[in-house]
Design goal:
The protein is α/β, with parallel strands linked by helices and 505 residues long. The protein contains 19 helices and 17 strands.
């Protein structure tokens, strides 16, 4: 790896001699945050150490004989090393989640002092190096004890317990944390966990694709999503009443936002695209901004869609200081029956949506192309439809086979294309305030375990020490953040493709 830095400097010097549509870090607003992201179960490991108890993610990953996060990247023990890498990279912010069952092993009640100490040390380590912590309260890892007791997110009891958990986090960490996301990618969480059975706790109706032991795909995604919105509103209200005056932070809510575009210029496909946006974006954005679900969902779902009382509507409306956008892929939408990327189940969210999502280019869930105009479209839609709310791009990145070359050129191409899309959106008036690459380092991934990864640093999962090694994307991001790289996508990428002999694993 000794020649890594020299190789990269030569590459940049040569590629900078001619380019089109270049941009630099300095073109973004001064207070714009560039960061990277992880989550507790995917990064920390140490699942049975220092008082942590199982979460539904532990149970899910072990039940299906999948890879698991028992050790993951061992971030629990190696957090100082990882913060050092962040400093070297020039990250301005680091997004991570707090393991509910590490902090409150019973889901409620006494705080685990060792869990509390870990997060205090991590946050201080970040702050001491000038890195802004962005904390997610919930990232797929409900304490198993609460799932067993009352069914977790399917029961309104979750609102009280989640609010109490958030209260502990605000009280203990709020002096040092100014950015909070309550629920991670709530839309896809509700769909995947309670409709498709492909995320913890793994609920779905009986079908030929997934062997779920429990669930009802026609009702549970909407019940769980409703409770997420109410729990978020409760937490947001708590923060405003009890903490905001002193801590001066912000509380937001995040959704998974597909890019969506009509497959043809037909009226039918345009109507289909609007319907897809209503189900995939407006489902939770409309309550957060306007206090109620989209009319098309109410008409389609009838009594299967929960109803907000007047009081609840007022609590949810305006409860998010910012919208967190998690974006990776874009689809064409059509009303005509076609091979969709989602299985055609007899019942469930995508059946209710009633349109077809078609892949663009070479696509699989372990590999996809950069479609930056898809993200621009999402940001423009939020600007026009939701009064231009403050936005953070909380996740964006490209998966590649884990044991591939350290020269992850496709990932560099992907990241710089989307950063350019964000800049375009800002120039067009979007109030987008930050961009986080998923992920800082190779992680345990929900859908792929350790076979594919998103990291800018390679982690050797066969090594007990979980050695980290920089990929090309790490040095590219470093150069961009430090202002030593001007983005010039076409010439830069073509030059890389013309060169060979780069370090491999």
């Amino acid at each position: 790896m000794k020649n890594f830095s020299l190789y990269f400097k030569i590459l940049v010097i040569v590629s900078a001699t001619s380019y089109i549509d270049a941009f630099t870090r300095n073109e973004f607003p001064d207070d714009f945050l560039f960061g990277a992201a992880t989550s507790a179960y995917q990064w920390e490991g140490a699942v049975d150490e220092d008082g942590r108890t199982p979460s539904v993610w532990d149970t899910y990953s072990h039940s299906y004989s999948r890879d698991n996060g028992d050790i993951a990247c061992d971030g629990y023990h190696k957090y100082k090393e990882d913060v050092k890498l962040m400093v070297e990279m020039g990250l301005q912010s680091f997004r991570f989640s707090i393991s509910w069952s590490r902090l409150l092993p019973n889901g409620r009640g006494p705080i685990n002092p060792k869990g509390l100490l870990f997060y205090k040390k991590l946050i201080k380590e970040l702050q001491n190096h000038g890195i802004e912590p962005h904390v997610t309260l919930y990232h797929y890892d409900l304490p198993q004890s609460l799932e067993d007791e009352y069914g977790g997110w399917l029961n309104r009891k979750i609102i009280e317990d989640f609010t109490a958990f958030a209260d502990v986090c605000f009280r203990e960490f709020g002096e040092d944390v100014k950015l909070w996301t309550t629920v991670n990618e709530a839309t896809i969480f509700a769909i995947a966990s309670y409709g498709e059975g492909i995320a913890p706790p793994g609920h779905c109706s009986p079908n030929i694709f997934i062997n779920c032991s429990t669930g009802n795909s026609s009702t549970e995604p909407y019940i769980a999503g409703h409770n997420m919105l109410l729990a978020h509103a409760s937490v947001s209200n708590l923060y405003k009443l009890k903490y905001k005056g002193k801590q001066r932070g912000s509380v937001g809510f995040s959704i998974f936002a597909f890019g969506l575009s009509p497959n043809t210029n037909s009226t039918d496909d345009e109507i289909a695209t609007q319907r897809a946006k209503a189900f995939l974006l407006d489902w939770m954005l409309k309550p957060l901004v306007f206090g109620d679900y989209p009319d098309v969902m109410k008409r389609t779902l009838g009594s299967r869609l929960p109803v907000f009382s007047e009081e609840e509507s007022e609590q949810v409306k305006g409860s998010s200081d910012f919208i967190g956008i998690i974006h990776y892929i874009t689809f064409y939408v059509t009303s005509q029956p076609a091979p969709s990327i989602f299985p055609n189940m007899k019942e469930g969210f995508f059946t209710d949506m009633g349109v077809y999502l078609l892949p663009i280019g070479n696509f699989s869930f372990s590999e996809w192309e950069a479609i930056p105009w898809g993200l621009e479209g999402v940001l423009e839609y939020l600007k026009q439809s939701y009064n231009n709310p403050p936005i953070y791009i909380l996740e964006n990145g490209k998966p590649m086979k884990h044991d591939s070359m350290l020269q992850d050129t496709p990932r560099v191409e992907y990241i710089q294309a989307y950063i350019g899309a964000v800049l375009n959106a800002i120039k067009n008036g979007s109030d987008t305030r930050g961009y986080f690459v998923w992920s800082m380092i190779d992680l345990y991934e929900l859908m792929a375990g350790y076979t594919t990864s998103f990291g800018m640093y390679y982690v050797n999962f066969s090594d007990p020490g979980r050695k980290r090694s920089p990929k090309l994307s790490a040095s590219w991001y470093t150069g961009f953040l430090n202002g030593t790289i001007d983005v010039a996508s076409q010439d830069y990428i073509q030059l890389q493709r013309n060169l060979s002999g780069y370090s491999s694993l």
